[in-house]
Amino acid sequence: MKSATVIDVARQAGVSVATVSRVLNGRVTVDGKLRERVNAAVAALGYRPNRLARNLRMNSTNVLAVVIPDIQNPFFVSAARGAEEAAFQAGYTLLLCNTDDDPEREKSYFQVLSDEAVAGIIVCSTDECLGAIPVRAALDEGIAVVALDRRVEGAPVDAVLSDNFGGGRLGVSYLVELGHRRIGLIAGPDRFAPGRERRLGYEQALLDRGLAVERELIKATDFKIESADAATEALLRLDERPTALFISSGYSAIGALRAIYRCGLRIPDDISVIVFDDLDWTSAYNPPLTAVAQNTRQLGKIASELLLRRIRGDDEPPQERRLSTRLEIRSSCRPPQ
Amino acid sequence: MKSATVIDVARQAGVSVATVSRVLNGRVTVDGKLRERVNAAVAALGYRPNRLARNLRMNSTNVLAVVIPDIQNPFFVSAARGAEEAAFQAGYTLLLCNTDDDPEREKSYFQVLSDEAVAGIIVCSTDECLGAIPVRAALDEGIAVVALDRRVEGAPVDAVLSDNFGGGRLGVSYLVELGHRRIGLIAGPDRFAPGRERRLGYEQALLDRGLAVERELIKATDFKIESADAATEALLRLDERPTALFISSGYSAIGALRAIYRCGLRIPDDISVIVFDDLDWTSAYNPPLTAVAQNTRQLGKIASELLLRRIRGDDEPPQERRLSTRLEIRSSCRPPQ
DNA sequence: TTGTAAGCGTTATCAT
DNA sequence: ATGATAACGCTTACAA
Questions:
Q1: Which residue is nearest to nucleotide D11 (CA to C1')?
Q2: For chain A, give me the number of helices (H) and strands (E)?
Q3: Residue A283 is nearest to which of B80, B97, B258, comparing CB atoms?
Q4: What pTM does this model have?
Q5: Virtual torsion, Cα B204, B210, B211, B213, nearest 10 deg
């Protein structure tokens, strides 16, 4: 049995298709009686609008996309989830696109998304500068875009990020106050806001107390498990080992913890540890890890909301939203011996 | 500048739109010369087919959906990722739908997906029996469906699951051989294949050695962190505490580990632990956790492949695929004191 | 093999 | 306020 169309509804209700469309979309005023008849006909026929036809006509769909570098990273998943909730409530579904931090895949996804005519894209770009190219292309095609966690420089889009600087400073201050003077930093890539800003926060916390920033204590990584592992091992091999570690990405902390275990060091007896981002397992670790928690879910939710606003035609100048972080004190830190 | 359509291409190439469509879709044979001219015109105009128009015409899209109970659970994410890779390669994009184990949300998503006319759905249903209702409805509308991790009873769909029974037996056998006699089981819901089969595997491993299955050592959970926490605490409070724990879901192991830590027990000195499913952090835990590893990524990949086969019209009777598990021996088990 | 033309089900313009 | 009708861009009978 073929499903009913506007034409069937119109016939059944004794009105024109235009009227049917009007009551369905509820934009303009329609006479109460006709409206009733249309609604009755819709119910009687079990009419459901054909989205595909509408999509063609409107040249746009009810789907949003989240383009993230790593779907294995719970941070992004959590943000995606927040985004999904808001999207679903607004009647949108969410396409999940994993770039693996590969600019080619990112470009290719933007291509597909524009073909697919998604209504909007939430993107954590593989490159804060080059990312602007596909973003601008999308914007040109009328696709709304919001940046998440990382900025997109050179494209007029809203951005929602954590207060990385504040978070870094918060965590490191805590270590400093505990008495640590040699604090290792497992940093992220400096070309992205999160890595750079957290490092800056780390440095600020040191400066706040008049402590020197020592280059050898800062190891850059790509926020992947393997590189955090290597970076941590390098730090632990230093002649004068750090007494505390600030790991600036919760996901890659897995690598750091592996290295610590491998070196036979115990937390917090031999070394104190703080991770940035409070993942599910951090509180279950042995010992439970002190963490700088981000509002990951909220990050995604707000990104969705900003996106939906743009889709609805909001024309304000781009804004940048910063979400606060907080320190979850658990058992992985203590004063140095 | 509006983008080119088949009409523009046809004009440019001096052929009809039908011919353009034919070379674009490459179904029927088209004269070499015309084909060349069309391709040249496509290139010259930078023509890109309008998916929305095609969707309407074909009444179907290039998108697949994955409907999972919990997007926070890395197991599902990993499977989704495997699915995405296969889908992307085949030119499909992947919609991610999170049901939160709520049958209402599941129904509602199936509704949306059918409105959206996705080509296929990979589903881990919230109910192995009731799930059949929306699934059959989707099938009726020509949407292909494949079951993942959990079955769908009463609907003719392919299913891809881990060898849960074998995995449970494998892990528990290892514990038994180490000399454990009181092995606690943090079980899953019995109404789903994974929970039930892993429990059966646990029981079989005991029976293999002529050991009795003691009900008090088996605690059912819903595979969520909180309930695993409570179940574990209950087990640890038993008069005669188990000397080992088989935690039948990696994600909820977080709860179990919290409980163990809270009770002041040490792994493996006070209690041995095996988890089912080898997540990123299990190998970084202190101590590294022995785990029964599933081929999670492969699970999703195969689901996608089966789905694509169905979409392409494969008409074989439904098949059930089982993926093997393996034991990753690390440092969380030792003989009982 | 190629071309013509009829839809697919909407929305929106333009009369009325 | 309502109705007739023309798009939207594509695929595919059907005809040649």
A1: B57
A2: 12, 12
A3: B258
A4: 0.95
A5: 50
- Chain B residue with Cα closest to A87: B97
Q: Of all nucleotides in the shown strands, which has a C1' nearest the CA of B19?
A: C2
Of A278, A300, A297, A299, nearest in space to A289 by CA: A278
Give which of B73, B286, B297 to mutate to test A binding, by max A Cβ within 10 Å: B286
pLDDT tier, B233 (very low <50, low <70, confident <90, very high otherwise) = very high
- For the segment B62-121, what is each residue's pLDDT rounded down to a tens digit? 999 999 999 999 999 999 999 999 999 999 999 999 999 999 999 999 999 999 999 999
What is the rounded CA–CA span in Å between residue B119 and residue B55?
Answer: 10
**Cα dihedral value A247, A251, A252, A255, nearest 10:** 100
Answer yes or no: are the C-beta atoms of B119 and B129 closer than 8 Å.
Answer: no
Closest Cα to residue B176, out of B213, B211, B201, B200? B211
Q: Is the dihedral of CA B312, B314, B318, B321 positive or negative?
A: negative
- CA gap A17, A34 in Å, rounded: 12
pLDDT at A20: 95
**E strands in B12-171:** 63-68, 93-98, 120-123, 144-148, 158-162
Tokens 């009409």 sit on residue: B7
Q: Which residue type occupies B266? A: R
Q: Which residues touch strand D (CB under 7 A)?
A: A 14-19, 22, 28-31, 33-34, 53, 56-57, 59; B 2-3, 5-7, 17-18, 20-22, 24-25, 27, 47, 49-50, 53-54, 56-58
> Do B68 and B76 form a contact (C-beta atoms < 8 A)?
yes
- Do B51 and A116 make contact, defined as CB atoms within 8 angstroms? yes
B183: phi then psi, degrees, rounded to nearest 5? -110, 115
Specify the DSSP class assigned to residue B282: G
Whether the upstream peptide bond of residue B287 has omega within 30° of 0, thus cis, is yes
> How many angstroms separate the Cα of A143 from the Cα of each of A116, A235, B97, B184?
11, 45, 22, 54
- A73-108 pLDDT per residue, tens: 999 999 999 999 999 999 999 999 999 999 999 999
Beta carbons within 8 Å of A226's beta carbon, 6+ residues apart: A255
Strand pairing of B158-162 and B320-323? parallel
